[in-house]
Write a sequence for this structure.
């Protein structure tokens, strides 16, 4: 039983680390998109790729947040 608890804690810690990394990458992409759009010289295709990556990161972030949030039965 203790081994299972340790594994669960290790999985939760790994998920939290991934979540932090994904949030940081999401913020970085947001800043990059904003900078490219401000300059006006940004490659539209590159901006679209950044936005698509940002959306996929957001989906993964939501998935991890849901997994880490305990279910509450009302």
């Amino acid at each position: 039983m203790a081994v299972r608890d340790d594994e669960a804690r290790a999985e939760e810690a790994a998920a939290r680390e991934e979540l932090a990394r994904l949030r940081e990458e999401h913020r970085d992409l947001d800043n990059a998109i904003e900078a490219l759009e401000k300059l006006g010289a940004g490659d539209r295709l590159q901006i679209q790729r950044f936005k698509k990556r940002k959306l996929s990161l957001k989906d993964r972030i939501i998935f991890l947040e849901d997994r880490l949030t305990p279910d509450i039965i009302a």
Remarks:
- The radius of gyration is 17 Å.
- The longest helix spans residues 2-39.
